[in-house]
Amino acid sequence: MSQQASSALAGIRDVLIGIAVENEGETASSAIGYGLTLAKAAGAHLTLQSASWRLSGDDRWISGFDDGSVAEIDRRLDALARAIAERAAGDARMAGVVCTTETPSLPYPAVIRRLAEQARLHDLAILDAGIWTCDLDREALEATLFESGRPVIAVPPGHAVFAGRRIIVAWDGSAPAARAANDAMPILRAAEAVEIVTVGNAAEIRDAVPGAEFAPHLARHGVNVIVNDLPVSGSIGDTLRSQAGLFRADMIVMGAYRHSRTRQFFFGGVTRSLLRSCPVPLFLSR
Q1: How many CB atoms lie within 10 A of CB 188?
Q2: Among 146, 95, 150, which residue's Cα sits nearest to residue 118?
Q3: DSSP character for 283?
Q4: CA-CA distance, 39 to 98, in Å (whole number)?
Q5: pTM of the entire structure?
Q6: Predicted confidence (pLDDT) at residue 259 exceeds the cutoff of 80
Q7: Beta-carbon neighbour count of residue 18 at 10 Å?
């Protein structure tokens, strides 16, 4: 990474990685490697919250187990969360990154609440993204976005190293989109090329704040920016995925969840579509 890029990333001073362990098969995390390499590039402090979901005290999940078996499951999950934290702390030491870890063992609602609270104390949070097979995965990411006031980078499998040479800013003229671009400014300034992408028909693009009007703001901050208005091909999510491949993007920056979580759950949305299937990490703000 060039000295200019490192200088731009220096605007990021502390990074939180959030891991929630809920079964013994969960040992792989792209978010840990991604967050560690981002913290190293930025010269930032790294915090890892490796939490385990404690079944005892959670009446919704305790039925069907006797007290001894529940306590044993809690012990094993706590041990796994601690092992993940210790391994990450060791990797951070070798990389020269100052790292703090915490390993809370908490019932389901408290795991989510603790992550959102911790995110408020950091410049950004980094979480794993992928196919949501359980409520904990989805709730952790959504609660952090809705309740922390901080941006989140959602890292899909296979992206364990931070890269930010070429970045797409998904622009729809909304307040969340403007907030996302502003929150991502250190990363955008460090990039070699940034493309503002607006997806829609001519009338939709005309009625929104055009990307061409937003581009000068980024340029004044030293961002090397171009603008690209695209028609919808399949869906907005499909169009952004396709453009990320054509642009060889390392990241998509976008405003998250323009509608309520309830509406998103029942009717879907661009954010959920991309979180379920995206070729690159997503930088999200709400």
Answers
A1: 24
A2: 150
A3: E
A4: 9
A5: 0.90
A6: no
A7: 28
28: number of Cβ within 10 Å = 10
- Assigned token pair, 254: 């976008």
- H runs (alpha helix) in the chain: 3-9, 30-42, 59-62, 67-95, 108-119, 135-148, 175-183, 185-190, 202-207, 211-220, 236-247, 261-267, 270-276
Q: Convert the pLDDT of each residue in 126-172 to its tens digit.
A: 999 865 444 566 778 888 999 999 999 999 999 999 999 999 999 99
Residues with Cβ within 8 Å of 210's Cβ and at least 6 positions away in sequence, in order, are 173, 198, 229
218-228 pLDDT, tens per residue? 999 999 999 99
What is the pLDDT at residue 202?
65
Q: What is the CA radius of gyration of the chain?
A: 19
DSSP 81-130: HHHHHHHHHHHHHHHT--EEEE--EE-HHHHHHHHHHHHTTSSEEEEE-S
Report d(CA 70, CA 221) in Å as an integer: 54
Domains and CATH numbers, the chain: 3-155 (3.40.50.620), 166-285 (3.40.50.620)
Encoding tokens for residue 192? 């070699």
Q: What's the average model confidence in pLDDT over 202-210?
A: 70
